[in-house]
Design brief:
This protein has about 475 residues and is α/β, with parallel strands linked by helices. Strands 1, 2, 3, 4, 5, 6 and 20 form a seven-stranded parallel sheet that branches. A five-stranded mixed beta barrel has the order 15-16-17-19-18. The protein has helices at about 15-30, 55-75, 85-90, 95-100, 115-120, 170, 180-195, 220-230, 250-255, 275-280, 285-300, 315-330, 355-380, 450-455; strands at about 10-15, 35, 45-50, 80-85, 105, 125-130, 150-155, 155, 175, 195-200, 235-240, 265, 305-310, 335-340, 385-395, 400-405, 410-415, 425-435, 440-445, 470. It starts with 7 loop residues before the first strand and ends with a strand. The chain binds S-adenosyl-L-homocysteine and FE3-S4 cluster. FE3-S4 cluster (F3S) binds near residues 166 and 203.
């Protein structure tokens, strides 16, 4: 009998940052066991598809992708294929029935069990590992950090909000906060490792509470204070904040800690109170405006981004116009707008009054058309300034590199005779041109002068990107 044990793996990731981190956790566990990542899915003995089910389109793509992976298996029958992520949790057994060559289905809360599941498959089983067992914090050990510029740290898993459109509480389960001491230890570890930017993750990240302390224990404002105080944390970000849970003490953290990035993703979903109510969001548009005003007062340079849904059941022209007015008034630095997509198990499809697809399409286009000049103008204001940029890697064009400002704007700059900066370096760029979605500029340091960022400890700290991870997002 041949040894079917996989020697190599490939993880493909769709969706949000939580999936991105879950893929790093999967890769970490597999590498600990001696499996090596491959650059191409076709070369791997074990292929994992870490899926997203937030909108129907993303889910359909997952199944066509699995179809492609099946072809590899027809050539090399020893290949193992696993469906992970939110589609896995939602479909469970059904996915095994639908895709004959699928070996296993692994839900987001079962990531830590990947090695056991692979072992069961090798013993001839097809495995469904879904549901929400008691969280074991050591499941956050052995993470294969992909890229070298942002260290992601999960602080809250799952979500209890049950917004009527959203499948996430069903796929990621009830909300669970991680302990502060574990979070701080992970942050310190990442800083020792050489990361300069820390990104705290949770579906409702600002609803974090020290577990077991009820309403009286440390909350997210306390946690922010502690993480911002860890020596070496140069940039601190967190996603995703839930507007209703954003307290004045959290706003104060922006004023008190310059290393908390002046950037906040604050999904609003709609500018109409009646739609917000049907979505079950639990806040009014007036309270959202008040929150935005207080954030801008605390940190005038703050850049806000948001998520919007158009074509929510029953959305009238008037309700939509309120969303459009809000987009124009609040001037978001960036915006993610989606057409409503009915999801199984959620409450919104039962509201009836579905909005015509063509109308929803038109509304989406009107949002983008309103946002584009705003972003262009906001970016234009930065032309001529010198900005600190955290290098994220190579640019799309040959001979260019890219990075992010502390407000999370994308900056592209040519090598211009410099040795390439490493992902994670902080450099200064003179901004010369603004586009709607990015800034173009040049490094301010001369190529013939030593670059300070290269002399730092971090430059002597080799870090490995993981070729086995591909993020589609
Ligand atoms: N708190 C989460 C939200 C996850 S869903 C976070 O980390 O971002 C991300 C965004 O997808 C939501 O803010 C919402 O704007 C959009 N979305 C969620 N469900 C949707 C649906 N059924 N149809 C269209 N867009 C949806
Ligand atoms: Fe989804 Fe609402 Fe939670 S958008 S992730 S149910 S906060």
């Amino acid at each position: 009998m041949t040894d079917r044990r996989p020697r190599s793996f490939f993880v493909e990731t769709w969706g949000c940052q939580m999936n991105e981190l879950d893929s790093q956790r999967l890769a970490g566990k597999l590498m600990e066991q001696g499996l090596l990542p491959t650059r191409e899915s076709s070369e791997a003995d074990l292929i994992l598809l870490n899926s997203c089910s937030v909108r129907e389109k993303a889910e359909q793509k997952v199944y066509s992708r699995l179809g492609m992976y099946r072809q590899f298996k027809q050539k090399r029958p020893e290949v193992l294929i696993g469906l992970c992520g939110c589609v896995a949790q939602e479909a469970g057994e059904r996915a095994l029935k639908r895709v004959p060559d699928l070996d296993f289905v692994l839900g987001p809360a079962r990531v830590g069990e990947i090695l056991d599941v692979v072992a069961d498959c090798l013993a001839g089983k097809r495995v469904v590992a879904t549901g929400f067992p008691e969280e074991r914090d050591h499941d956050f050990d052995s993470i294969s950090r992909d890229g070298t510029y942002k260290g992601m740290v999960t602080i809250v898993e799952g979500c209890n909000k049950n917004c009527t459109f959203c499948i996430v509480p069903l796929t990621r389960g009830p909300e669970r906060s991680r302990r502060m001491d574990r979070i701080l230890a992970e942050v310190e570890h990442l800083i020792d490792y050489g990361f300069r930017e820390i990104e705290l993750l949770g579906q409702t990240v600002n609803h974090w509470r020290e577990p077991g302390t009820g309403d009286r224990g440390p909350d997210f404002a306390d946690l922010l204070e502690r993480v911002a105080g860890v020596p070496g944390v140069e940039r601190l970000r967190f996603v995703t904040s839930y507007p209703r849970d954003f307290t004045p003490r959290m706003v104060e953290q922006f004023a008190g800690h310059p290393n908390i990035s002046p950037y906040l993703h604050l999904p609003v979903q709609s500018g109409s109170n009646s739609v917000l109510q049907r979505m079950g969001r639990g806040y009014t548009i007036e309270s959202y405006y008040a929150l935005v005003a207080s954030l801008r007062e605390a940190r005038p340079e703050i850049s806000l981004s948001t998520d919007l849904i158009v074509g929510f059941p029953g959305e009238t022209d008037d309700e939509f116009e309120r969303t459009l007015d809000m987009v124009i008034e609040l001037e978001f630095g960036s915006l993610f707008a989606f057409k409503y997509s009915p999801r199984p198990g959620t409450a919104a499809p039962r509201l009836g009054n579905a909005v015509d697809m063509a109308v929803a399409d038109q509304r989406l286009q009107r949002i983008f058309a309103a946002q584009e000049p705003i972003q262009r103008r906001l970016n234009q204001q930065l032309v001529g300034s010198r900005i600190e940029v955290l290098v994220t890697g190579w640019g799309k064009r040959p001979g260019t590199q890219s990075g992010r400002t502390s407000c999370h704007r994308v900056v592209h700059f040519p090598l211009d005779g410099h040795e390439a900066a490493k992902s994670g370096d902080l450099i200064e760029v003179h901004i010369e041109k603004a586009l709607a979605h990015s800034l173009l500029g040049r490094r301010t340091d001369r190529p013939d002068r030593p670059d300070r960022s290269r002399d730092s400890d971090q430059a002597n700290h080799p870090r490995q990107a993981s070729p086995g991870l591909s993020v589609v997002a």
